[in-house]
Amino acid sequence: MATASSRRRNLFSLQPLDAKTQSPLFQRRRVAQEEDMGNAPQVLSLNGKPSANMSLGHAVCERCHDGFSMDEQIVNSNGQVWHTQCFVCAQCFQPFPEGRFFEFEGRKYCEHDFCVLFAPSCGKCGEFISGRVIKAMNSSWHPECFRCFSCAKVLADEGFVKNQGRALCRDCNASEKAKGLGKYVCFKCHSIIDGGHLKWKGEAFHPYHFNCHSCGIELKEDAREKDAELYCLRCHDKMGIPICGACRRPIEERVVHAMGKTWHVEHFVCAKCEKPFLGTRHYEKKGLAYCEIHYHQLFGNICFVCNNIISGDVFSAFNKAWCSAHFACSICDHKMNQKTKFFEFDQKPVCKNCYDKFPSELKKRLKKAYDEAVKAGK
User: Fold this and answer.
1) pLDDT, tens digit, for every residue of 289-317?
2) Superfamily of domain covering 242-300
3) For the chain, give me the number of helices (H) and strands (E)?
4) Start and end of every LIM zinc-binding domain (predicted)?
5) Domain 4-136 CATH class label
6) What are phi and psi of 186, to 5 degrees?
7) Contact, 341 vs 352, CB < 8 A?
């Protein structure tokens, strides 16, 4: 008959314990790498074989501190043994799915509860971050979620600049800075253009990035474009290009021919209001061009009532002009024509009927004033 001590020694070869080592629970392993987190937990593999210095007869469950029966299956994790029903998540008290768990400060958690309790969430997508974490702008980010606010370029390995609470790449930050200074950013080298800039295909450049297509010298800000090539000003002026009558500079795009000269479209403007004609009719007077409104205001007739240009009959009196629709008695509004007799009262026309109704004394004063004006040659 076997003694009690020999029965205890034979417990290490019990089939349930060996069978447990073949289960996925003891063979699965996962390592969670968490950057920028102190005391990062590790997923531990479960080993069904007890350590050599462990005596099963005196072993107790790490959680409930009870012993084990002789035919009971046990769980061994890093030298600690557990009842199978005690080896559960410290938060939800459920078995670990597929045997995976995370350990933090001596307590074991399933993956879900560990993420909820300890894992950072992404500042953009809101998902838990498993793996590399980017710490920036007082938030945590997936590397692929941390992007430039302006151009959406991934910043994880590029570096960034904080600008008004936004993360910007260096190129976009330079552009923002240039806008604030009222300067351009070179499209080629991405640095601020402190001096004059050169426009090429809609973008701004340092002029020294280009050479004249004809003579090869380094270009300056006054370089010119012709047929998709850049030329220095000297070579450009030798090519028979028309010169603007206003700015005296070469015209490289649309040309306006007027008044015996050539003009940039934006430089052919009214001499009074300085608005470009842009293809509308213009009027010439003493070598200057005027829009229709200002030409008539300066040299034509504008109705005293409606302020419109008078294109038909003009009624002139008292240094004023009226169109046929608005030439009327200023008192009774009766329409008048060229044959209608009228009188002046307060620099306005008054028909004979209304004038006859004036007091005699008033009519005498009006007649006296009229005679004095005629005598003075007014």
Assistant:
1) 999 888 878 887 788 888 787 777 778 88
2) Cysteine Rich Protein (2.10.110.10)
3) 9, 22
4) 59-119, 120-179, 242-301, 302-361
5) mainly beta
6) -60, 130
7) yes
